[in-house]
Amino acid sequence: MEMRVVVSPSGGLGGFPDSSYIIDFMKNIYIVILSLLGSLGISLFFYLDDFSLSNSSRPDWRYKDKEISSRLLAIPILLYHNINGRGPFSIDDAVLREQFQLIKEKGMRVVSLHELIGRLEHPKPYREKGVIITFDDGYYSTYSLLVPLAREFRYPVTQFIYCDAVSQRSSRSMTWARLRIMERMGIDVQAHSISHADLTELSRKNDPISRKKLFEEIYLSKRIIELYLGKKVDFFAFPYGRYDLYLVKLASDAGYKRVFSTDYGSNIITRDNFCLRRNHIKSSYSLHYIENLIK
Ligand SMILES: [Zn+2]
Questions:
Q1: Which of 81, 159, 184, 235 is the most buried (most CB within 10 A)?
Q2: Which helix (H) or strand (E) holds 130?
């Protein structure tokens, strides 16, 4: 009698399940179980992550949502220079008083630069109308006239100075001693270069002498003011408001937290804004014009 051997498709003997077939089957089951466990793990991760967001990090997101809706609320930064009423950018002290009074009557809050930057870095919506007041250069009038006025209105004001404007000799010029008094009286002194050169010209030349000068104008001015006033300098205002991307990068590398131009316009509240615009106030502006500017 002839014995027939039936070969199964899997190569095993007919009638008995082949052991390699069982192994393949078990492998498939194993992969399915692993996949299910994996999906479950990923779902759990997202669930827990979402849960942790709702407990700890969630407020940031809530604020962020509000921040997006509050981006239409702009903060105007005003820029003044001298206070003697002579020239297109020098305001008479009586006119400056009227403008300060207007800000008060409109119920606007004068915000310090540090507070603004704090709000930019840790988003929190503004519920009140804010305005920022800055002065450039370091004229003597900011010591003799601005200090008492800012104190009377309790306005935090920032004064950007360039180091060459600070003289130790003249009785009617800015000195480090006067700047220290201004600091004590609530005026925040920040950097505006060494010589008030047009930095974009130096940036364009890009030779070793110009690069060294740029280092002094941006980096050294910060260090000198920090040394004389015993404080940290965080802000830099470009002379004549002129800048380019290279200068912005240099200022960032020097450790400034924000830089300021004289580009007109308001600043929308966003953390990405490193170079902020300012509205240069001319002596020819009417009070009505200022009112429109800050509203
Ligand atoms: Zn200037």
A1: 159
A2: strand 130-137
DSSP 55: I
89 lies in the same domain as 138: yes
Give the H or E element holding residue 181.
Answer: helix 176-184
User: What per-residue confidence (pLDDT) applies to 217?
Assistant: 98
Q: What distance in angstroms lies between residue 196's CA and the mean position of ligand 1's atoms?
A: 6
Q: How far is the CA of 252 from the centre of ligand 1 (A)?
A: 20
135: domain CATH number is 3.20.20.370
In angstroms, what is the span from residue 117 Cα to ligand 1's centroid?
22
Same domain, 221 and 252: yes
pLDDT above 60 for 177: yes
Q: Which residue, chain included where needed, has tokens 């950007």?
A: 160
Would you say residue 3 lies in a domain? no
Amino acid at 215: F
pLDDT tens, position by position, 206-249 = 899 999 999 999 999 999 999 999 999 999 999 999 999 999 99
Q: 31: domain range?
A: 17-69
Q: Are strands 74-75 and 267-268 parallel, antiparallel or unpaired?
A: antiparallel
Predicted structure pTM score? 0.74
**Beta bridge mates, 109:** 130
Residues 253 and 212 in one domain: yes
pLDDT digits (tens, 9 = 90+) for 107-163: 999 999 999 888 777 766 667 788 999 999 999 999 999 999 999 999 999 999 999
CA of 243 to the centre of ligand 1 (A): 13
Residue 171 token pair? 């009785």
Sign of CA dihedral 63, 64, 70, 73: positive
Q: How many domains does the chain have?
A: 2
